[in-house]
Amino acid sequence: MKEKIISVSFVIILFxxxxxxxxxxxxxxxxxxxxxxxxxxxxxxDVVENLEEYLTDQFPLRNNFLSLNSIWNRYxxxxxEDNLVYLKEDYIIEKMYPIEKESINxxxxxxxxxxxxxxxxxxxxxxxxxxxxxxxxxxxxxxxxYEELKKELKENIKGKEIDIFDLLExxxxxxxxxxxxxxxxxxxxxxxxxxxxxxxxxxxxKEKSFKEFKGSSAAKVPFSKKEExxxxxxxxxxxVKVTHLEYxxxxxxxxxxxxxxxxxxxxxxxxxxxxxxxNNNIEEEKELVIFRDSFSSSLAPLLIPYYKKITLVDLRYxxxxxxxxxxxxxxxxxxxxxxxxxxxxxxxxx
Amino acid sequence: xxxxxxxxxxxxxxxxxLIYYIFPKKYHNEILLIFSIFFYYMGEKEYVILLLLxxxxxxxxxxxxxxxxxxxxxxxxxxxxxxxLFYYKYTxxxxxxxxxxxxxxxxxxxxxxxxxxxxxxxxNLSYLIDVYKKxxxxxxxxxxxxxxxxxxxxLVAGPIVRYKDVNDELETRKESFSSFxxxxxxxxxxxxxxxxxxxxxxxxxxxxxxSNMSSFSxxxxxxxxxxxxxxxxxxxxxxxIGLGKMFGFHWKENFNYPLIATSVTDFWRRWHISLSSFFRxxxxxxxxxNRCSNxxxxxxxxxxxxxxxxxxxxNWNFILWGIYFFFxxxxxxxxxxxxxxxxxxxxxxxxxxxxxxxxxxxxKEIMTFLxxxxxxxxxxWNKESIYFLKNNLILLxxxxxxxSPYLKNKINNKKKGNKWIEIGSMLYLLIxxxxxxxxxxxxxxxxxxxxxx
Lengths: 350, 453
What we know:
The structure holds two protein chains of two kinds.
Chain A: H1 2-23, E1 29-30, E2 35-36, H2 40-45, H3 47-58, H4 62-76, E3 85-88, E4 91-94, H5 101-118, E5 125-129, H6 146-156, E6 160-161, H7 185-196, E7 206-213, E8 227-233, H8 235-238, E9 241-244, E10 248-250, E11 274-278, E12 287-292, H9 296-303, E13 309-313, H10 320-326, E14 333-339, H11 340-344
Parallel strand pairs in A: 5-6, 5-14, 12-13, 12-14
Antiparallel strand pairs in A: 1-2, 3-4, 7-8, 9-10, 9-11, 11-13
Chain B: H1 6-22, H2 28-44, H3 47-68, H4 71-102, H5 117-132, H6 142-150, H7 152-155, H8 163-171, H9 177-209, H10 215-246, H11 264-270, H12 273-284, H13 294-312, H14 316-335, H15 344-359, H16 363-373, H17 383-391, H18 393-402, H19 406-415, H20 419-442
Helix pairs in contact in B: 1-2, 2-6, 3-4, 3-5, 3-6, 4-5, 9-10, 9-20, 10-15, 10-16, 12-13, 13-14, 14-15
């Protein structure tokens, strides 16, 4: 009897999934993985090569199986860094450890190249934004030796450090995303003001919120909850001129992207190599250039009241020669603002 | 195509089962043949031609050997099989080694190793030798012989099934619920070993390797190497044997809990049994085995173990790996003649070190690894190694528990007549199967290690 049950059940399971697969329509997008899935068109390129990738992407109940795998790894095998993320309460914390020495050296080299070759007449500053693991107990996780890292950067980068590590806490970050909440930049702006010589203004903001936010880390943990994404705006911010190298005209907050696969793209439309934000309703003539990653997309809007023009350069998407065609270095304030993620993957810098 | 893939599990296998069991028995071999060729094509495309030509050549030579009982045909057959294996597997190794030796850069050839060539070459060789020795009659038809060689469960990573062991079942075999359910059970257990355990050990040691290493980290990595290769390869053999059973074949065991061996000699009676018995029967015994002087016996053992190492890969570390075992086997055989070694601990340490040599292709790196394991040049432990131990404790426990049959035997003893344990064991299979699917969908990494041989 047992033999029959095992044999028949096995065959039924195999056939059920096969039939289910054949009957179901292709799913175009995975919400929890935040990526496009391979569809039948992909098979037209090379069926033999691409078949397995297509089948794994379109497998029935895929999301449930992905969750089951996470449960197995994290809760049964006790692997607290499943999918290379740690969990603390509802916070999903990407594992940044280890950062290769070569990557740090490359980062230093790239910044120094820029400073010595193009910014001799400016007074450049650099600011490193810690990741969430900085705030966790060392016993529970493997984390980067931040003190050593900061020392290494301070000794080698030919610019002045703006240290914001002590200003931040875990609650300043989104639970499901690597980025800082926009509100958290308010205290950072105070520190920037001290270094760039602008005095704080009393600015009234209207806070808008999107309650369905799930950040980029949410895909790595089953059952992650939605959270609120807030952004601060006012008339001055809404009336600036935003010019992207790629998309031409833009807005500070692209609200239509709130419901896209990455809601964080609401800030200055997400990844963009070169953006100029011009504020013509301001008397100050100060200009700022930020060499940056995605974190500065939510920082830049809050700096609008202090600068006539803010230029954002993402050296991961544009090289120096191309940048120089669009940017004339004069006496602007210069800030290199990078998160730990870029330090870990600094070979992306062009 | 690998067994632990969606295309195999939910398309290839159900379709084959459907067609196989719908059609009458007389078509069964043909169905297996067509599906096996398709299986190989999905992994190797153009090398299907090489595989079929190899089958045709060996079938033809087999006939000639039987008819004329000629050593010349046997020699031609052996030389051609080894020649093909040598060309695809070892040419570049010899070019590179000669380049280094003469300090002159010779250009390597653009040769891709066909999947399973080491396995099907050895099956062909065993067939020709067995026919010559009249242990088995030559195959009645090219179709039957090709079915034997290409049979998909054992085609790309063994076990090395001999024609004489499968000849009868190729003619007549009885499929039954009992054999089928045994096959399913074995197949799912094998899948679990490969996907849930071996791949997890791979992830464990690559993570540790990328961290700040201490002596203890090196020990964890070495354990990771050992468990990964054991669960990977024995898992594959379980799947192959299980699939064979689903279609009525009953092949010999390839692993018998080798990690609990009490000596290196015992280990090689339990590890990759089909390979060690191949070398015993077709190399060691023909050379004189142990029925000769001690010097000749040592020479025979040296040759067999160098070849065993070299079979595993075209690199010096594999030759060193074979010689390493030769060294321990000689010590056990000649230094402990009267009082035989019986120690799990000694054997386990020897095995773990052997898999360091097996996994690391650079000889200098092997030395650094071994030195670091005993704390030379690195701290004994650090926060990273303690963290990795904590984080992989359950996996390591599973690794240690699974290397012995103790738990399995306990459950089997209690299972008889106990309805709940029976139900529990069926649920256990279901859970493993679902976890395997979830893991396949989540992980991009899942090639079998033994495919490269």
